[in-house]
Amino acid sequence: MKQPLLAFNDKGIYCAQANVYLDPWRPVDNAIISHGHSDHSRWGHKNYITHHTNVPIIRHRLGEINVTGKNWGETFTINGVMFSLHPAGHIIGSAQIRVEYKGEVWVFTGDYKTEDDGISVPYEVVKCNTFITENTFGLPAFKWLPQAEVMDDVNNWWAQNRAEGKTSVLFGYTLGKAQRLLKYLDPNIGKIYTHGAVENMTQVLRQFVDFPATERITSETKKDTFPGSIVLAPPSAHGSTWIRKMTPYVTGSASGWMAFRGARRRRAIDKGFVMSDHCDWQGLLESIKATGAEKIICTHGYSDIFSAYLREQGYDARTEKTQYEGDEGETDNSGAPAEIADEEL
Description:
Blueprint: E1 7-8, E2 13-15, E3 20-22, E4 30-32, E5 47-51, H1 55-62, E6 67-70, E7 76-78, E8 81-87, E9 95-101, E10 104-108, E11 130-135, H2 147-163, E12 167-171, H3 177-184, E13 192-194, H4 196-205, E14 215-216, E15 230-233, E16 249-254, H5 263-266, E17 271-273, H6 281-291, E18 295-301, H7 303-312, E19 316-320, H8 338-344
Parallel strand pairs: 3-4, 4-5, 5-6, 10-11, 11-18, 12-15, 12-16, 13-14, 13-15, 16-17, 18-19
Antiparallel strand pairs: 1-2, 2-3, 7-8, 8-9, 9-10
Protein name: mRNA 3'-end processing factor
Organism: Flavobacterium rivuli WB 3.3-2 = DSM 21788
InterPro entries: MBL, RibonucZ/Hydroxyglut_hydro, Xnuc_lig_assoc
């Protein structure tokens, strides 16, 4: 039997011909990294290759690693295998990884979304024979509203809370979601404060994006300055002693899971905003069709349901298990320093 160009094993997605792993979840010699979320960029590899905008992100999180940055579409060859990185639109620096050998082309998406968020390089369709796709939101129930509508809702919520003399505490993941929200917050409404983990990552990304001004919350920040302002914080801050100084406050969360009835109540959130950095159902289907791929490999999320649907549509589709969890609920068990995990909870 012919060995597949890419194979899933206990360390990650492996290209034996090049002796390279894609987003490995255990330490390896050579790793090509799709993006900076901790379930895809793990600590402990000897050599990292990633898009150059992702280099400062993973160095911020992982320390002084041996990493090489590549440009979009730049081809690099390892033992006859040609690799290149193409925009995934998921977060800043997120890439799809194209792999070609002897005329056969595979594409590994990492995480991706098709809506242009205005801060990430927009998703690019890459033609291939085999397409490895995530399925975080691979159910017909997931259908995203345009980003502009969601951000209007966020800003109107903040303005209403300000009128009532309350602090708006908005939760979003430290890398990606927090910056997407920040970019479109209306600073004319009030002051924008940030949790330290959000501020640290945002400072790394200011070299790529013109964000509104923010102020880091410290032990010196006075409680009476919060009413009417908005605070961007990671979900781990909810229910912590840190948040108490914002009283009286109202909480909001931006996540694709807010599309599920009851998600806001279970998370004890006052207001839910449906905003995801992943494709919705239609986005997944349109992306797959556009690649022209005959074979589809589905990973994490609703992969079994989604692959079964694809087979009904005539695709050669199957599932593979990974340790990718998706940034909508990501945790870190990579062996990285503890502060990295804390930023993602």
